[in-house]
Amino acid sequence: MKKLYIETYGCQMNFADSEVVAAILKDLYDLTENIQEADLILLNTCSIRDKAEQRIHKRLQELEALKKKHRTLQVGLLGCMAERMQEELLQTEPVLNFIAGPDAYRDLPHLIEESANGDAKFNVLLSEEETYDNIMPVRYDLNGVSAYVSIMRGCNNFCTYCVVPYTRGRERSRSPQTIFMEVEQLLKDGYKEVTLLGQNVNSYLWEQDGQTMNFAQLMAAVAEMSPDLRVRFATSHPKDISDELIETIAKYDNICKYIHLPVQSGSDVMLKRMNRVYTREYYMGRVRKIKELMPDCAISTDIIAGFCGETLEDHEQTLSIMREVGYEYAYMFKYSERGGTMSAKRFKDDIPDEEKTRRLEEIIALQGELSLASNQRDVGKTFRVLIEGTSKRSADQLYGRNSQNKVIIFPKGNHQIGEYVDVTVTRCSPATLFADE
Ligand code: SAH
Ligand code: SF4
Ligand code: F3S
Fold first, then answer.
1. Residue whose CA is at the smallest distance from ligand 3 atom 7
2. pTM to 2 decimals?
3. Nearest alpha carbon to residue 399 among 380, 426, 423, 379
4. Residues with CB under 6 A from ligand 1
5. Residue 381, Cβ neighbours under 10 Å: how many?
6. How far is residue 29's CA from residue 18's CA, in Å, rounded to a whole number?
7. Which pLDDT belongs to residue 225?
């Protein structure tokens, strides 16, 4: 059988999609981890920031050399960049045989065949229905413990800075039946953790024959499938994290006490300009509700530094909301203007790059303090950890995560990957907890 090599960039959704792609191609290709022996190389790409795209352009140049060696090698580009740049990519990147947007993966066998003779092909059609719901992904990231399960696709939120609504199309939910089937199979295969995925899982909604299922109900149903299964989810948009959802997370022991709740900015002026649809006060109200029902719940965030027109006062507001929430973790970015988005059309990208860098560094330094303080509070506490693998630093150490999504490293003893174990934290670094016995 021919060999397929997939490289995935960007968010968890792309990682889940690569597993769907591997499933669609499983009768034609075996997966390989050795790029040198590949007959087909696929890059599943991300467009979220300019840097992400630059990385892909560089990678494609490197692949040209490989293609000169292997005459029959085919290279295809998938994902958000395919959707954003469309045919233009085929002209600027001659190494590509074909490109396929996020809703066109069922067409891959056809694109591969049609482009084999040297004529570049593309399919970037977006769909209002495609959820790949009947496809059982091929798990190629084989830790065998934790898996992603995609529950919806697309995004309707149109935050003004963001390309995702354009690259992924309209929001649509996957049928609960096929989600349950996939989780059932994972349980049979020995998996212990699932992460339910979507750009905005809180707006999951399935309607059929007058019956509806929302995200809180879906998650409760998945949690009830096995007490041994941990349930995580990403990402929650603050605008619709309901009381019902927070109560559901609190109610089930096996729903992890970790919420990624991207704030983006602490300034109401910026939030409005970003079209986030919530205010700082509303956001803090949600945080208070979470902490009230689950004092031990970890909260992480995404932050954008130097958005259009951001004043020093706005920036200070971001720092102050970070302190007020006391985030466990943050993903922090400089604003990167994306062609075609509302903010590119309407607002000036007017913060000089050095100033964006300076603000970002301040944000990163503050988060470092907050993460360390949070970890220090955990020293002396005992946590249930799901063991995911052997520590990179030492074969005598294992690592896993607690419910709050923090990585804990501890001595191997007689423990096995995939087991739950209770460990007591004895020391920490800003990024990791350690439990020495
Ligand atoms: N759906 C998720 C986020 C997906 S994108 C949500 O709404 O929370 C992940 C993060 O990338 C965003 O939260 C935002 O912080 C960042 N991001 C998106 N577009 C960006 C841009 N143009 N420049 C810089 N960061 C951006
Ligand atoms: Fe982008 Fe906003 Fe949708 Fe998240 S919610 S994917 S930031 S448009
Ligand atoms: Fe990137 Fe697309 Fe995800 S732009 S962040 S891969 S949805």
1. 164
2. 0.95
3. 423
4. 48-49, 161-162, 164, 199-200, 235, 237, 262, 264, 302, 304, 333, 335-336, 338
5. 13
6. 14
7. 98
Structure tokens belonging to residue 2: 């021919």
pLDDT of residue 142: 66
Ligand closest to 79 (CA) is 3
pLDDT of residue 436: 85
Cβ burial, residue 255 (10 Å; 0-12/13-18/19+): buried
Measure 426 CA to ligand 1 centroid, in angstroms: 35
Q: Which residues contact 158 (CB under 8 A, 6 or more apart)?
A: 165, 275, 342
Ligand 2: lining residues by beta carbon, under 6 Å: 155, 157-159, 162, 164-165, 199-200, 237
Q: Under 8 Å CB-to-CB from 2, ≥6 apart: which residues? A: 28, 29, 30, 39, 40
Q: Nearest to residue 160, comparing CAs of 307, 333, 321, 50?
A: 307
Nearest alpha-carbon partner for 290 in 247, 330, 240, 237 = 247
DSSP secondary structure code for residue 58 in this structure: H
CA–centroid distance, 420 to ligand 3, in Å, is 32
Nearest C-alpha neighbor of 418 from the set 216, 209, 189: 189
- DSSP per position, 154-208: ------TT--HHHHH-S-EEPPHHHHHHHHHHHHHTT--EEEEE-TTGGG-EEEE
Compute the 3-state secondary structure of the chain and give helix, strand, coil in percent, each to the nearest 5.
40, 25, 40
Tokens, residue 26: 């499983």
Number of residues that make up the chain: 437
Q: What is the pLDDT of residue 141?
A: 63
Q: Which residues of the chain have pLDDT under 50?
A: none
Cβ neighbours of residue 127 under 8 Å, at least 6 residues apart? Answer: 103, 169
Tokens 């955990």 -> residue: 378
Cα(396) to centroid(ligand 2), Å? 41
Question: Within 10 A of 218 (CB to CB), how many other CB atoms are there?
Answer: 24
